Queue: 3 jobs
Job 1
Amino acid sequence: MERGSPFQLECPLPLDEYPHVLLAHGGGGRLMHMLLERLFFPALGSSGDHDGALLEVGGVRLAFTTDAFVVSPWRFPGGDIGSLAVHGTVNDLAACGARPLALATAFILEEGFPVESVWEVARSAGEAATRVGVPVVTGDTKVVDRGKGDGIFVITTGVGVVPEGVDVAPARARPGDVIVINGFIADHGIAIMSVREGLAFETTLQSDSAPLHDLVAAVLEVARGQVHVMRDPTRGGVATALNEIARVAGVGIELDEASLPVRPEVQGACELLGLDPLYVANEGKMLFVIAPDVAEHVLEAMRGHPLGQDAAVIGRVVDEHPGRVVMRSRIGGRRVVDVLSGEQLPRIC
Amino acid sequence: MERGSPFQLECPLPLDEYPHVLLAHGGGGRLMHMLLERLFFPALGSSGDHDGALLEVGGVRLAFTTDAFVVSPWRFPGGDIGSLAVHGTVNDLAACGARPLALATAFILEEGFPVESVWEVARSAGEAATRVGVPVVTGDTKVVDRGKGDGIFVITTGVGVVPEGVDVAPARARPGDVIVINGFIADHGIAIMSVREGLAFETTLQSDSAPLHDLVAAVLEVARGQVHVMRDPTRGGVATALNEIARVAGVGIELDEASLPVRPEVQGACELLGLDPLYVANEGKMLFVIAPDVAEHVLEAMRGHPLGQDAAVIGRVVDEHPGRVVMRSRIGGRRVVDVLSGEQLPRIC
């Protein structure tokens, strides 16, 4: 052991309990949180928000975010890994309040994967970026031997500009705020699972994968400084995202079950698969924590946008039970909505 | 077929010749170049330099670069995938003339990989970043099923600031310029190969993996606008990097075999393995194409730096044979140093 090393030598995560990486370590739940807080953050000397960081350059605030996409299967109803990667990164920037400025894409290809599928994914990413109006300015490509990858992984990194007057952060949630979402939850995760499990429904369930920069800009336009937190509820779903906000801000969150927008066919699939839609990943949804006096304006702005027509107030921030999310059920009962240990669905994004 | 779609529908890369991804598609040679030029660039609407891009924000020039690291084995003499990822990204920024500002790291872990090894890699990346003085500000972690990955992949993205007066680009190489490198070539690739092939040498060959931001700053300090091109010769080695410069700038490049710094043990390993050190990857080397009148000052500055003690002038830019690199051998012969089709060494970075 080097004495006086500036670097921590022992892993702060106890290695005897989970000596090997589990799928649940990537699931957005408690195990992943532990891996971040007790391994990656101390190792990397980083303690920031894992979803995106702010940099100050020449008097401009930049948002910076990276995401690795390993979704299986890579093509699914409503999208594919290429468009998903672009939308996911654009949405992470949007959650920081940033307008997208440029993207970088890295591809890890497995030997033997069809070149035509590489074209399909790359074109899908390119089209998604063009629709958003953000250029892909740089990238990288690596190939791994057969059996050492899974067809294609896409890693996107985004840089965006945060306009003046915008100041969003999980810690800014305060009692009295209301929680708004722009539409139906759990569509993405259930679309993936229905393909994986070979489930047939009367209608095809589609992923909600979509870029939310424009919807977010519309909301900021009417509410600007009154938007306290934005969060895209991807891995771990709405429940995990709200728990994170409650924990960081030290506030309670109360959800109203009756107001949660869930499609009947998604609810049905969840029951079949034993899943709770609150924990299922979304890829075209944003949670907004806003001051109550702008709620009407925000809802109006969202409903005037193609991606916000089913927007709803789903809960509020309270003084009680700080750090916890509590659901008020349809019949008036209350239950704690906790963070799961692993996740319900591996490789969903 | 959608008529009038703004997007190209047919893959411009002929799919019948190579219908499936080959390891050589990631090797830095001709096949990879084709994949970039005829698939990724048209699909992504990107035509820029694959190694890094410049963005203008608030009057500041930013460099932006991303790299996926899939080196096998992940631990090797002189480094590991964690420090390699940080050094590689810092060096890509340095090659743009940029000082590193912030890094993002994404990890793709395979189920079953030891958590202790994750700690070793993450700590190594964190230490490398600390030594460079660049913070890791954001990241992502994904886990894939056993057999769908290879232990650990690390994807790093960097943002850097290009100081005023610095203007480097491959197209700026001009006849009369001299080509300088900061030390011995091929160390990284041979260190990896000697582990993979189980070769035993009298001394352990070490990777040259190192961050070059500080050396580059020292060179720019003495030569600033007279540094025309910088390029880190990683995949594909010195030969491939120089071919790229010759092609883009439309100039010829003449190399002098006798002045190429190759360690005897690396030369020996290359002969044993049937490799040409000119094509073997480096991870701590930079090629500088500079005006001849600053060559002495640049060499002096480099030799005064720990990472430039073995700096040498290895060739020059000429009017003749535009687009080609020609080697003048020790005995006075001349041979064309072409781009290889695939690569000599898969998964070297």
Note: Chain A has a mean pLDDT of 93.
Job 2
Amino acid sequence: MQALSSARCEACDAHAKPATAQEVNHYMPQLPGWQVIRHDGIDKLSQTFKTQGYTRSMSFTNAVAKLAESSDHHPQMIVDYGAVTVIWWSHKIAGLHKNDFIMAAKTSEVF
Amino acid sequence: MQALSSARCEACDAHAKPATAQEVNHYMPQLPGWQVIRHDGIDKLSQTFKTQGYTRSMSFTNAVAKLAESSDHHPQMIVDYGAVTVIWWSHKIAGLHKNDFIMAAKTSEVF
């Protein structure tokens, strides 16, 4: 089976199907450190990456932004002095799509 | 009186005095769009700046990070596709110091 980190995002529109509970349970063991959180009624994938200070936080933030631009799928990022929290979800379906699990895996690789 | 945006941050340690209510009331009219929020029992200065997309969000984030490094005072930043929220407070005193009002004014100038 293809690793999530080497899969490619598919175009996602408002009619795309959200990930099922079975799919979520299948993907999560491939994503150490990631958690499904529920925020404003929307399921999201979140991980806080500890860094060695602001310069490192910013270089990681820029690397994830570059990954986001290349995939045309963009996370929320919370930049702190010694940590960056990356949060993926699919705005168009207000929930989690396979794309988000792919991007989470790629984010961990970038880190 | 010196404009906040042209003032310089002073070194701030755990014994520095937090801004008084009177000082907050004095500074806030100089900071359009900024709000004092209370989060985890800590007063913070927050503003959400709307942007024209992720590239613009990232360029603003990098500009604020550069300002932060030059002042050795670092905000939390929440990067979204079409907005960046910048949140200033002084970790060492777990609250607001004059430095935070200065940095908020400089942030608005950068934007």
Note: The first strand of chain A starts at residue 35 and ends at 39.
Job 3
Amino acid sequence: MTEPQIEPQSAGVVAPATARFDDVLRLRSGGRLDGYELVYEIYGELNAARSNAVLVCHALSGSHHVAGRYADEDEDSGWWNNLVGPGKPLDTRKFFVIGINNLGGCNGSTGPRSLNLATGRPWGADFPFVTVEDWVDAQARLADELGIDSFAAVIGGSLGGMQALSWTLQYPERVRHAAVIASAPKLSAQNIAFNEVARQAILTDPDFHDGHFYEHGVAPERGLRLARMVGHITYLSDDAMGEKFGRSLCHGKAVYSYGIEFEIESYLRHQGDKFARQFDANTYLLTTKALDYYDPAFAHGGDLIAALAAARAGFLVVAFTTDWRFAPARSREIVYALAHNGCDVSYAEIDCPAGHDSFLLADPQYHAVLAAWFDRIEV
Amino acid sequence: MTEPQIEPQSAGVVAPATARFDDVLRLRSGGRLDGYELVYEIYGELNAARSNAVLVCHALSGSHHVAGRYADEDEDSGWWNNLVGPGKPLDTRKFFVIGINNLGGCNGSTGPRSLNLATGRPWGADFPFVTVEDWVDAQARLADELGIDSFAAVIGGSLGGMQALSWTLQYPERVRHAAVIASAPKLSAQNIAFNEVARQAILTDPDFHDGHFYEHGVAPERGLRLARMVGHITYLSDDAMGEKFGRSLCHGKAVYSYGIEFEIESYLRHQGDKFARQFDANTYLLTTKALDYYDPAFAHGGDLIAALAAARAGFLVVAFTTDWRFAPARSREIVYALAHNGCDVSYAEIDCPAGHDSFLLADPQYHAVLAAWFDRIEV
């Protein structure tokens, strides 16, 4: 029997691990979890000084599976596989990389699908609201568990970037560098509006059953599908969509039906269908709320400079010119506030056509910036 | 009894009229209507030369009720009331203005709610697909009926602008001027994508019943509500939404619920609820498809210059800097093609913060441009 081929720079075959926590976790929402599990994955090796750990924080639909593949797969399937591996920008020959599924997630960590011991049924919509800050607290406990006092870096894109930023404020002594990519210091009204449409699609789906759909053997797939379709529009730039799909007609001409006519319709429906089968609607709801609530300046009367004063890390902030979900101006707000506070901050604005999704792609300029930044980090 | 106060520049108390057509109308979709009714309203008086008529074409959710108010109302309720009236930019002392509800509409003209004589039940989703060109054909028949050989002007915003443009191509000898406002020569992939999300919201609503929901005594209000919420996001600019709503919290702080927390959520839900009670889901579907299909250059291999070669009218093209649904670049495509063909075309790019919705507002610069343009038109 021939071993399957593994690409030279692959993180290889990986397997998730589970950490169990029995201490109470008090949440910003006033809720609490008396115990919980976090699923995570590791790539590379922790050095003797335990100083080379990098935490990768995921965005709305990500997970702990950042790089490599599982034993039963033929190809690498990690969501940031192009970034993480031996010889890749986040080089696993140098760094010990950790991917984690956030609390409230649907990929193995304790979340709405988990059993609520108090009721004997799945948490469903009763799962307490979790915030970016709560996630960081939970991640810090995992770091304790793994014996990591201080991260060489925390990195994330979009909602993941908010977690990276929050790490530098909640645990300034525990994170030496932070990469905040395609992110924002808070959502705009328009960002919240898109999230609200997604939530209303799920909440008003008759199969939602007030969030306890598991017991009914159904799922609000119609709503989740619509939510994902709306999301996808905001992940791509108008130009990227135009170049990829334009007004191409699947049948070469108008056929006058509500079936698929334009290729963009086919793409959106496919993305929506796929996501609705895999993802959990309650996790989607929780996660969009965490996005909406994130606003470190709120407690400082809206003053972002004051809010970021606690940060001690060295920063890399990256934005993409065609990202209209979190436009470069939003990243620059973070850069200005950090620079004003005397932080060591690098800023790169990458001219990649793919919109918000650019942060997931292997744009050469983008990856060169990341590679150089990680290369300079001492471990 | 005191007469209600009417503002000096009001079009006053108006009443809709109905025109009945018994000739077959063949549609671009291959469908046909053996007879139909069009509801319209008039403001001002047709002059003796019958040369002062202006047709106002409506957009997605508009109607024939352009200006003034109905006898049982206390206030003017026309959707373009700020534009049309005595002394207003489209001055009814000079012009005879006509508003019309398009075929397939839900405000009185023959549409999905009307009885399909072939089946004895409402048309529902069996109502034939109608295009911008079909609407213009139907409008031309109304002009025949009213004894109007040639319009002094045809004006419309957004989808209404597409009708105004199409008039100049389908009936170049019957339209002397055309105002194409906040419009585009065709939808982009992103525009189609938003329409597709709206359609999927309606089509997958369990209350849609394949478009024959009237017989079930229900309506796909959940879907229509979501469609309208998505639409509203695209009608406003990010900045306008930010200025109007920002991140204002209805309760002053996060309360961690799926109820209304941010003011933008309240606004969107209200707009969605209101629309879902009033509008017809089948009309919404048909109208978004008419938008998607509109592409006069398609028959010319994508060559817009060739497509617009038939136009003889004098044009005013207006775009708004903050309109990201139909950005100024889309209007400029029309302007360039018209100018290349030697047409008389004026172009105004108005710096109004309200996004696509600007075309409905009384921005002083915008209205000054319109007033001057209408003033120069000889009748």
Note: The mean pLDDT of chain A is 96.
